[in-house]
Design goal:
alpha+beta, 9-stranded antiparallel β-sheet, elongated
Length: 405
């Protein structure tokens, strides 16, 4: 049983920037116990085949999370009730956090019309020396919130458990202790940037969140063109899950190979080659790659050698961001590249290319596990590893600690 909880923090939450106390209310229980959902809502897909013993399981779809909050007031003013109604109107999608877990937050919207059962009373108030009648309400109500994203994320200012030893949520948060961090380049907080410089090509990352919660994070990498006409995609592994090669690099290599293999007969085969590219390219740079090849040839913008250099320049020394949502098993790649407009005259602009790599993790969840605090045997917090076959000298990690809401 929690005792001496400072400021009655189990009786407070904030939605859309407003604490429930601003409306003259407090969070209560409609029973002698508090009730909450330990998991988000989900649906198991199961099929029964006639004549076959048992059922076939096709996976679990995790949807949102609904939270019912019971409130009560012993004297909210008419203005406070009006503001309560305004703050919890349908369609408001806002940040929400509870005082008992102040180190994390989620986003939710009002799912069911807020109800309020009350008894009205008259009260006389004095403003600027004059008396006014005002309504006072005593009663209780219900607020129902729905989290489309069923997970919560760490507030960036919370980094080390040592700084919050007076908080009863300190151990639950899974934040690492300062003296337990021995590996270099450890991730500690939301949006913390690190650069790995070790020869082992390994970056250590911590998620202070719950182990069962999925992880959302992104990292940036500068791509440098090696020698030859093929880009070597860096094999990136997170918790033994290999991130698939983006379609963008497949399309670049396909185009470079086509130019290299047909340089001598480019003029004779140009129409055929352009049609080949239109049929086989499928990335965010498809139009750009086709445009470069279409502007290549005698009397045109580029020779075949210059065209290959233009393709090199598209990605050489460019920074690519990869955002992985492990809930959907999707990997989004984003890069700001030099893109040409093949009009008259040809112009050059900076454009952001966004590509959905699809099932980049081959159906495997990427879970950066939450810390259990200091291991009693080793005295250390065990991190997860992110590996890259090209080293991680140019990688920056943006990592969100994730919690079950």
């Amino acid at each position: 049983m929690l005792e001496n909880v400072k400021d009655k923090s189990f009786l407070s939450f904030t939605f859309n920037g407003h604490a429930i106390e601003e409306f003259g209310c407090a969070v209560v229980s409609n029973d002698d116990r508090y009730t909450t959902s330990l998991q988000p809502q989900f649906t198991n897909t199961i099929t029964t085949v006639p004549g076959r013993i048992g059922s076939l399981y096709w996976g679990t779809d995790i949807t949102g999370l609904q939270k019912t909050i019971y409130i009560a007031t012993d004297g909210a003013t008419a203005r406070q009730i009006a503001n309560l109604k305004k703050n919890f109107t349908p369609g408001v999608y806002a940040k929400v956090s509870f005082a008992e877990t102040e180190y994390r937050y989620g986003y939710a919207l009002v799912d069911i019309a807020t109800s309020f059962s009350f008894l009205p009373f008259d009260e006389t108030i004095i403003m600027n020396g004059k008396e006014y009648k005002s309504g006072i309400y005593k009663g209780d109500g219900t607020i129902v919130l729905f989290y489309p994203d069923p997970y919560e994320y760490a507030e960036s200012q919370y980094q080390f458990a040592d700084d919050y030893i007076d908080k009863y949520w300190m151990l639950e948060s899974g934040l690492p202790f300062k003296n337990s961090i021995i590996e270099k380049n450890c991730y500690l907080a939301n949006n913390h940037i690190v650069n790995s410089i070790g020869a082992n090509k390994t970056l250590y990352a911590y998620n202070a969140g719950n182990a069962e919660a999925r992880t959302n994070f992104c990292f940036q990498k500068t791509i440098s063109f090696p020698s030859g006409d093929v880009y070597n995609w860096a094999d990136i592994t997170i918790n033994n899950v290999v991130i698939s090669e983006p379609r963008l690099f497949k399309d670049i290599n396909y185009t470079l190979a086509l130019i290299t293999n047909n340089t001598a007969a480019w003029e004779d085969k140009k129409t055929e080659l352009i049609n080949d590219l239109r049929e086989n390219l499928d990335s965010g740079l498809s139009a750009e790659l086709i445009g470069i090849c279409n502007a290549t040839g005698t009397g045109l913008q580029w020779t075949t050698a210059q065209a290959k250099q233009q393709i090199h320049d598209l990605v050489d020394e460019k920074v690519f961001s990869f955002s992985i949502n492990a809930i959907e098993l999707q990997c989004i790649m984003e890069a700001t590249l030099t893109v040409h407009s093949f009009g008259n005259p040809i112009t050059t602009i900076e454009q952001t290319i966004v590509e959905n790599i699809g099932d980049s993790t081959n159906g495997q969840y990427i879970i950066i596990e939450g810390s259990d605090g200091v291991n009693p045997i080793t005295g250390r917090v065990a991190p997860q590893k992110i590996l890259c076959n090209e080293g991680l000298q140019n990688v920056r990690i943006y990592f969100s600690n994730t919690y079950s809401a």
